Amino acid sequence: MKKKLRNIILISFSIVLSFCLFYFGTDGFQAYTAESARIYRLMEEKPFFPNVTLEDSKERVYEFTEFEGKYAVLTFIYTSCTDVCPQLEMNLAEVYKQIPSELLGEEIMFLSISFDPDRDDPKTLEKYQHFFSSDGETWRMARINNEEQLSSLLDEFGVIVLPDGEGGFTHNSAFYFVGRDGELLDVMDYKKTDEAAVKIMDTLQNDMEG
Amino acid sequence: MKRSFIIGSLIFLILIIPPIRIYMESMMIIHMLVQLPLLIVVGWCIGEYIENKYPKLFELINGNGVSGIIIFVAITMFWMLPRTLDEALTFPIYEIFKFISLPLAGFLLKDSWRKIKAFGRIFIYLNYLSMFGLMGWLYLDSPIQICNNYLLEQQKTLGWGFIFITALMVLYVLQSVFTDQSEEE
Question: Which of A120, A209, B96, B106 is the most exposed, fewest CB within 10 Å of its CB?
Answer without folding.
Answer: A209
